[in-house]
Amino acid sequence: MRIIITKDYQELSQKAASLIAQQLKEKPSSVLCFATGSTPLGTYENLVSLCKDGKADFSKVFTFNLDEYYGLADDHPQSYHYFMSEHLFKHVNLRKGKSLIPDGTVKNIKEYCKHYEWEMKQKGGIDLQLLGLGSDGHIGFNEPGSSLGSRTRLKTLDEQTVKDNSRFFDSEKDVPRYVLTMGIGTIMEARKIVFLVSGENKASILQKVVEGPVTSMVPASALQLHPNTVLIADEPAASKLARKDYYSYVEKMQERYEKGEI
Ligand code: GLP
Does this model's pTM top 0.85? Predict the structure, then answer.
């Protein structure tokens, strides 16, 4: 895992957006997979600016999303369909019909989830996966205990996640208890993962994710086994990493290498 520690959230967001823009430059027809939550908001803002300045072109891109609340229609203000449209899709030159987000209203869930995975394969697989981190260590909506080989499916939210996400709803009881989420096995098939973690409240769980054992009790720890993950953490989130200084040193050495200084 490559670990980039930024001084603040702003720098984290700029770095993440520039990695995505770079991906689009290298492969204009990239298949991207997006995440929701507060953490990627700054990244999306930066991507919108880059697109307006002609530095990020979405015209040939296809996008997927990690997850969706089960029971929310796509025009519900708390649905992830609505979130993606508001924060990214309607501001960039992504073509109509070129994004797929799990449909939270389907009846035949098993068939549908299989089909969602099939669509990913049809498009050639995910080139770049954006991820955030839940306070209990989840990625997507894969709560602790999720199989590290899991695929897209219906999951039940942990009470902690219901509490965390209640800030977006009128009250805790309005938070859907079921979700559709790509599995950890699905996520691990992405060719590149950009993993964003921000804020002091994520510091303890991030330490477990990066420096603890790989375990389904901390779903994001599976990323230790992924060959091409870039973790971008701001200072507060990185504050409990035991080998923080070493990771920063490695990054400096990497930059020198990329500039041809060694
Ligand atoms: C939700 C999403 C995750 C996200 C997590 C953390 O549960 N399903 O994809 O990473 O929230 O959100 P935040 O970035 O707001 O802390």
Answer: yes
